[in-house]
Amino acid sequence: xxxxxxxxxxxxxxxxxxxxxxxxxxxxxxxxxxxxxxxxxxxxxxxxxxxxxxxxxxxxxxxxxxxxxxxxxxxxxxxxxxxxxxxxxxxxxxxxxxxxxxxxxxxxxxxxxxxxxxxxxxxxxxxxxxxxxxxxxxxxxxxxxxxxxxxxxxxxxxxxxxxxxxxxxxxxxxxxxxxxxxxxxxxxxxxxxxxxxxxxxxxxxxxxxxxxxxxxxxxxxxxxxxxxxxxxxxxxxxxxxxxxxxxxxxxxxxxxxxxxxxxxxxxxxxxxxxxxxxxxxxxxxxxxxxxxxxxxxxxxxxxxxxxxxxxxxxxxxxxxxxxxxxxxxxxxxxxxxxxxxxxxxxxxxxxxxxxxxxxxxxxxxxxxxxxxxxxxxxxxxxxxxxxxxxxxxxxxxxxxxxxxxxxxxxxxxxxxxxxxxxxxxxxxxxxxxxxxxxxxxxxxxxxxxxxxxxxxxxxxxxxxxxxxxxxxxxxxxxxxxxxxxxxxxxxxxxxxxxxxxxxxxxxxxxxxxxxxxx
Amino acid sequence: xxxxxxxxxxxxxxxxxxxxxxxxxxxxxxxxxxxxxxxxxxxxxxxxxxxxxxxxxxxxxxxxxxxxxxxxxxxxxxxxxxxxxxxxxxxxxxxxxxxxxxxxxxxxxxxxxxxxxxxxx
Lengths: 518, 121
Prior knowledge:
The structure holds two protein chains of two kinds.
Chain A: H1 7-23, H2 29-52, E1 56-59, E2 74-77, H3 79-102, H4 109-128, H5 132-150, H6 156-187, H7 192-202, H8 206-223, H9 232-238, H10 241-268, H11 274-295, H12 300-331, H13 336-375, H14 391-405, H15 411-425, H16 429-454, H17 470-488, H18 490-506, H19 510-517
Antiparallel strand pairs in A: 1-2
Helix pairs in contact in A: 1-2, 1-4, 2-3, 3-4, 3-10, 3-13, 3-17, 3-18, 4-5, 4-10, 5-6, 5-10, 6-8, 6-9, 7-10, 7-19, 8-10, 9-10, 9-12, 10-12, 10-13, 11-12, 11-16, 12-13, 12-16, 13-14, 13-15, 13-17, 13-18, 14-16, 14-17, 15-16, 15-17, 17-18
Chain B: H1 7-25, H2 29-50, H3 67-73, H4 77-108
C-alpha cells in the first residue's frame, strides 16, 4: 500500500494539467465529472490507507541508502501523515462539490480546477515527503497555486490581497530554504530521518539553532501565527469561497502547523525545551490577538479569517505544551511517566482540534459563500432573517458556529476541553483560564453572526433570496455531518485517526527508526 | 576576527538583508519585486557556496575514475542541483508577481503601495 501513496500526489497533478483542456469544451459536465472523480479517488485512497493503518517508507526510484548518506527522495507514511491526508481529502471533497455550482459565475472554470488540484497535490506532497528540500518544493507548489487562487476574481481588492500574500509567503519560503541550506551544511544530508539521527547523536549547535529560528519564521508565516499574521485576514476572504475553505481549512495546517510539528518534533528535536516555549508563546499570542481582532469585524469572511488565527493558536499552544512536558520528562526520570501522559493528552487535544478546525472552519466559509451566492453581500449588517429562506445553509451554519465556540456535544467542545484539561494538569492555570476566556469570546462573536445573518426580520431587498444549489448544500451537509460525528463518536475516531498521529510526534526518534530501519 | 574564507558567506547574508529591506521598506511594487528577487538569489548564492571547496574541480566523473576519488577533490554537486530547482521556483514566483503588479497597475493606475489601499488594514 505504501508503494501506491505517491498516487495521491500524482493523480491530482496529472488532473491539474488535463482539466484546462476540458475547460474549453461545452457542455461543462465532463469537467466537473473529472474533478469529482479525482477528488473522490484521493479521498477513498486516503481513507483506505487510514483503515489499514498503512505505515512505511518508499524510496523513490529505488535510491535506498545503506549506511551512507541518502541522496534520493523518500516518502514516508505514518500516523501524522495519515491524519493530515484524511483532513486534506475531506475538505477538498467538500470544496470540489461546492465549486461545481459556485464557480459557474466565474470564467475559466478549467483553470480554476487546475490550480485547485495543483494546490491539493502540493499539500499531499508536503505531508508525505521525508526530505527537507522536497518539503520546500511541494510547499512552493501549493503556495504558488494558492497565491494565484486568491487573485482569481481579479478585482482590485483581490489583487492587492494576493500581492501582499505573495510577498510575505515568498519571504517565508526564502527563510525556509535558508534553514534547509543550514541543515544540509551541518548534517550533510537532506533526509529528515538522517538529520534527526545527526541531531540526536551530536546535539543541537548554534547553526542548527539559527536554522530552527528560520523555520519558525518561515512556517510561522505560512501558519499565520501572530507576529506573522498580517496577510491572512486579507488573503482568505478575497479568494472564492471554496478556496477560502481550503486555505483556512487545510493550507495553513499542512504548510504551517504540520511542517512545524514535523520539523521540530521529529527532526530538530526540542532543543532542551526552548523551542516548545516559542510554540507556546506564539500559540497563546495568536489565540488571544486573533479573537480580539475578530470580535469587531463586520465582514462575514473577514471575521472567520481572524478566527482561523485564533483557533490555530489553540493547536500550536497544545503542541507546544506537549513539547515542553516531553523535554521536562527527559530530564526528570522520576516524574517521566506522568509528564509523558499529560504530553500525550495535550498532543491528542491539539491534533483533534486541528482536525475539527478543518471541518468547522471550512463549513463556515462555505456557509459564508452560500450566503454571498444567494444575497450578493457578506456585510453582516446588510443580511438578516435568512433562516426561513435558506434552511440548509442556516442549519449547517449553526452547527459550525456551535462547534467552533465549543458547545457540547459538537466536536470543538471535546478538543478544547482536552486542551484545557492538559493545560491545567501541567499547572498552567493562567493559560487554561485564557483558553476558556478566548472560547467565550469566540462564542460571543458567533452569537453576533447568528443574530445578524440568520435571525431577525428579512430585509425587503433580500425578499427574493433562495436556498443555494444542491451541490453546494451537499458539500455543506457532508462537513456538518463530520462536525457532529467527530463530536458524538469521538472515541471511535480516536483509535484509528488520532492516536497514531499523537504517537508519531510523541516518540520523536521513532520516525527516524521507522524510515531508516524498516 | 573575520577570516577571508568567511567573507563570501557574510556577503551573501548582506545581500539577503538588502532584499529583505527592499521588501519591507520600499513603497514601489516594482522595487518590492526586485527586493524579492535579490533575497531569493542571495539564498541561492549561499546554497551554492556551501557546496564549494577551494580549488575543487567540477563533479563530473571521467572514464576510469572512481567516484570516491572524485569526491575527495570535487565540489559538492548536490547544492547545485538544489538551486536549479530553487531558481525555477523563483522564476514562477517572479512571473506571478509581475503579472499581479501589471493587473494592479491597470486597476489603480499606480505602482505606489501607499495609494493601493482598498483593504481595511
